[in-house]
């Protein structure tokens, strides 16, 4: 697979699994346009942000810990470190991917089921590890800038993208890979129209539900989200809304929530190709 494919897949991936959103302070009183504000955000100014790429990483890290770097500077520091560690992160991702394709029960099961539907065999040729830069956009509701980080993506024409710089460990990668494999399965079985928000919402619900990313231990220990009742359902709903909000045709999180609610009952009850929910 050529080196251009990861970039194409990242640009067109219909889902943003494991996306986290942060915002920078709104400057609605400024006459700057949205594009000007985004461009200013993307161009790091050490005097404004406190992050200086000309100094060592540990000095910048100390400045972050001591509160001398703005949230904008922290974003630039993170992207800077990802660029420095790109080769290492991709190697770790590829090693973990190859291990999971051999030994992970859920990954092997989903690979088998997608192949049975007439799809190409999912392997190292179409499951690509790459560095995924964060996307910056303006929230139309609040006017604030938001940074969206992507864990992976699926594109019918290119395969599965795994964002090597966002993977914490092999288990985290397994959840993301299983998530994207559910999208691949849905596309082959139901010919999903990824531009239709209802279709996309249904697949996002199923992917978060079946991949294992909303298991109790992941939510309570890793993310710190713990409730006595409906924790699993809350996680699936929240992650489906987040993924849908990141799509160009979705206006905001209110719109995403409305679409997810419309398809929730039928999609949450559909566990195919599993007999039951994998947790």
Automatic annotation (TrEMBL):
It comes from the Eukaryota. Residues 1-33 have a biased composition (Low complexity). Residues 1-37 are annotated as: Disordered. It is found in: Mitochondrion inner membrane. Its EC number is 3.4.24.-. Pfam families: Peptidase_M76. GO terms for biological process: proteolysis. InterPro entries: Peptidase_M76_ATP23. It is an enzyme of class 3 (hydrolase). Has a dual role in the assembly of mitochondrial ATPase. Acts as a protease that removes N-terminal residues of mitochondrial ATPase CF(0) subunit 6 at the intermembrane space side. Also involved in the correct assembly of the membrane-embedded ATPase CF(0) particle, probably mediating association of subunit 6 with the subunit 9 ring. This is Mitochondrial inner membrane protease ATP23. It comes from Sporothrix eucalyptigena.
């Amino acid at each position: 697979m050529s080196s251009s494919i990861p970039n194409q897949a990242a640009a067109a991936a219909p889902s943003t699994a494991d996306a986290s959103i942060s915002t920078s302070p709104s400057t609605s009183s400024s006459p700057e346009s949205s594009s000007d504000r985004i461009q200013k955000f993307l161009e790091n100014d050490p005097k404004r942000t406190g992050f200086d790429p000309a100094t060592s990483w540990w000095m910048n890290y100390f400045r972050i810990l001591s509160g001398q770097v703005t949230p904008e500077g922290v974003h630039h520091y993170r992207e800077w470190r990802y660029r420095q560690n790109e080769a290492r992160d991709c190697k770790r991702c590829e090693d973990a991917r190859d291990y999971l394709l051999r030994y992970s029960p859920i990954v092997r099961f989903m690979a088998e089921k997608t192949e049975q539907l007439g799809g190409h065999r999912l392997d190292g040729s179409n499951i690509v590890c790459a560095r995924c830069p964060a996307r910056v956009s303006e929230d139309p509701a609040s006017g604030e800038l938001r940074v969206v980080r992507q864990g992976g993506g699926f594109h019918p024409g290119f395969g599965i993208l795994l964002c090597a710089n966002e993977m914490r460990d092999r288990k985290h990668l397994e959840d993301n890979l299983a998530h994207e494999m559910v999208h691949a399965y849905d596309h082959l079985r139901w010919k999903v129209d990824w531009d239709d928000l209802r279709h996309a919402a249904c697949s996002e619900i199923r992917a978060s539900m079946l991949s294992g990313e909303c298991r109790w231990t992941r939510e309570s220990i890793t993310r710190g989200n713990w409730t006595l009742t409906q924790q699993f359902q809350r996680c699936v709903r929240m992650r489906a809304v987040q993924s849908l909000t990141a799509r160009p045709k979705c206006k905001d999180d209110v719109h995403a929530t409305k679409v997810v609610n419309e398809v929730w009952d039928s999609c949450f009850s559909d566990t195919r190709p599993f007999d039951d929910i994998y947790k």
